[in-house]
Known about the structure:
This protein has helices at 2-18, 23-31, 37-44, 104-120, 139-155, 175-179, 197-204, 210-214, 216-223, 233-246, 285-292, 337-352, 370-374, 377-390, 405-410, 434-441, 443-448, 453-468, 472-476, 489-499, and strands at 51-53, 76-83, 86-93, 124-128, 161-165, 168-170, 182-186, 191-193, 228-230, 299-301, 309-316, 319-326, 357-363, 395-404, 420-423, 428-430, 482-483. It is of the alpha/beta class. The strands form three sheets. Strands 10, 11, 12, 13, 14, 15, 16 and 17 form an eight-stranded mixed beta sheet that branches. Strands 1-2-3-4-5-7-9 form a seven-stranded mixed beta sheet, sandwiched between helices.
Amino acid sequence: xxxxxxxxxxxxxxxxxxxxxxxxxxxxxxxxxxxxxxxxxxxxxxxxxxxxxxxxxxxxxxxxxxxxxxxxxxxxxxxxxxxxxxxxxxxxxxxxxxxxxxxxxxxxxxxxxxxxxxxxxxxxxxxxxxxxxxxxxxxxxxxxxxxxxxxxxxxxxxxxxxxxxxxxxxxxxxxxxxxxxxxxxxxxxxxxxxxxxxxxxxxxxxxxxxxxxxxxxxxxxxxxxxxxxxxxxxxxxxxxxxxxxxxxxxxxxxxxxxxxxxxxxxxxxxxxxxxxxxxxxxxxxxxxxxxxxxxxxxxxxxxxxxxxxxxxxxxxxxxxxxxxxxxxxxxxxxxxxxxxxxxxxxxxxxxxxxxxxxxxxxxxxxxxxxxxxxxxxxxxxxxxxxxxxxxxxxxxxxxxxxxxxxxxxxxxxxxxxxxxxxxxxxxxxxxxxxxxxxxxxxxxxxxxxxxxxxxxxxxxxxxxxxxxxxxxxxxxxxxxxxxxxxxxxxxxxxxxxxxxxxxxxxxxxxxxxxxxx
Length: 517
Ligand code: HXC
């Protein structure tokens, strides 16, 4: 009899904990167009797979009347479950309890699942919706953030870490998502900033609202802090699930395979005529990517940021690959600061998690000018160079058209330990384009004979093009491995990847590298 009562009490206590801050606050959350922490986890995890931990944990703060405000769980739901049958560890902040603010005990709960994820070698997914450090706890809350950050750092490169921002994420709290591999935000209901609009106004006089300062669109297109901007929470959760399907559980495993009926030997005649006659005309690199990957299915990362370079995941013959491609349709595919940062981060993720890299090159060079130089294009460009050079995963590169100067080197060339480097017959692998080269080499002759300047220019340009605007110079020296017919690209890349599946390569022993930050 006593045991029955004990069980009833447990059931009651669980039911109460599941209510978080209570029905009124849940309603307020819904009224804002937001889901609760538990509703989000329900969407994310396979039905019935959630194993919750620390449901009864309560804060230990006594300041400002906090000793009279206790909620089981203390504003965060933590545990593990599965997504498509694969284990993941999760924490979801519950805004209905003290605005999801971070107490010391909340940080202990989060750290517990982070530690478990690292031990189990499973991804850790954090769903953030929080007013930041719990003000009543002072320094204890700050210490809690420090504990989380340290775990983000130790887990980096060992297990995938994904942050979903489903509400406020402000102040130093933004640094946990920033330390993770991928950050997703939801349009109109989530925002991230170090200091809110009121503080910005008082310090700088600038008047700006939350959305303009740190909304999803801003971070997905301008700062690059967010890799994804979802229309709503449901789409956000679906995006996280899809992302998981391309990546492994940890750095010792490979990503799950996805068998496809798309024939390995499928050729695409359209690729034989995709390159425009004029080297200054654009074409759409997405068409090339979709043509060569399984079923045309490409999962893009950082879609709205630095659109002059494209990065994302796809499958080729069922295996997950990371695709990096210059986009001639935006800024002629030039490499600038943001494109370099974006691609470098992606290359490093793929390398850390055993995802082979397929690089499609059509790059006229680095963007020039004071804005880029003052913003340290040198250091930022070096990030991408470094990322490719240190990467030991299989690297297959295809140069479609331009591969000029330093940008050719950066984009996974042979000398950066590119494994298999192909070129299309339309490739121009050279120090620079013909116009620029002639202007440098024949400036004196052209100036000395203004009457025939155009003639001289055209003649020298033709000479230069014949010599350099093709892939044969590079092929003759072994800097590329073969010149391939564009229509065969899918087949040739897949075959290279298959041959490289058992690749072994390493870097000299070191404490850690010192990549150009
Ligand atoms: C304690 C908090 C809180 C916080 C919100 N609440 N933030 N309690 N500490 N940081 C409580 C509110 O008092 C309220 O409690 C409930 O949560 C809901 O908050 P509302 O303000 O009613 O909600 P809303 O209008 O949606 O506004 C959300 C908000 C706002 C914009 C996040 O609450 C806010 O500005 N909070 C403070 C943000 C902040 O300055 N945080 C500290 C940042 S510094 P009741 O009981 O009324 O429901 C920081 C340092 C981290 O985080 C450093 C790491 C290194």
